[in-house]
Amino acid sequence: MENSEKRKLLQIARKSIESSFSGESVEIPASTIRRGAFVTLNKNGNLRGCIGYLTGLMPLYEEIFTLARSAAFEDYRFPPLREEELVNITIEISLLTEPEAIADIDGFNLEKDGIILSLHGRRAVFLPQVAKETGWSKEELMTALSEKAGFPGNAWKEEKAEFMTFQAEVFSEDQL
Question: Which end of the chain is less crowded, N or C, counting CB atoms within 10 A of the terminal residue's CB?
Answer without folding.
Answer: C
